[in-house]
Amino acid sequence: MSSSLLPFILFALVASISPGPTNLLILAHGAHNGLRASLAPIFAACAAAAAIVWVVGLGLGEVLLRHPLAQQVMSWVGVLWLSRLAWQLFRAAGEPLHATARQRFGVGSAASLQLVNPKVWLMAVAVIGVFATPGLPVWHLALVFLIIALPCMGAWALLGIGSARWLRSPRHLQRFNQLLALLLLVSAWSALLA
């Protein structure tokens, strides 16, 4: 085992389990649709994030560092898209769980969210800058990140599922969705402003 693998595992654990836009959307999806329906978006989001680590390590990170305007445009597009998702979640706050079940956070949405999620790009650049060594190649980092991210994001879905019983009350559901929308806004904008 490489001496930098354990610190990377700890970093990946913290990056994957900490609240962020994707985790919050998986939490809401789990609450509204259950675990089975959440498995595909969880895998798509984690695989896309691992792929971003891989392509950043293959050289895209250098391109982004050399072209700060491109990085800034990507960040703004991501924050605006996440803000739109937060607004939709906030507006749908009063809908009962069975009515929102048809509005699933699908595989395509989960994977494409990673492309515009500022937290994922910041994390990928940090991973490559700090942990990529000849003894720990980029594809190892991406694979380990995927293996760690899957159960972490699954925990967010389970947290949502656990809260579903409490969310049967329209008032509780409204507060839950509004809180998640506000947290989504804060997480997106804090990543941009960091």
UniProtKB/TrEMBL annotation:
Keyword Chaperone (UniProt): no
Ranges annotated as spanning the membrane: 40-65, 142-164, 176-193
Alphabetized InterPro entries for the sequence: LeuE-type
Swiss-Prot/TrEMBL keywords: Cell membrane, Membrane, Transmembrane, Transmembrane helix
Annotated Pfam families: LysE
Subcellular location per the Swiss-Prot or TrEMBL entry: Cell membrane
Highest taxon of the lineage: Bacteria
Membrane topology: Multi-pass membrane protein
Record-linked PANTHER family: ARGININE EXPORTER PROTEIN ARGO (PTHR30086), ARGININE EXPORTER PROTEIN ARGO-RELATED (PTHR30086:SF20)
Protein name: LysE family translocator
Organism: Pseudomonas machongensis
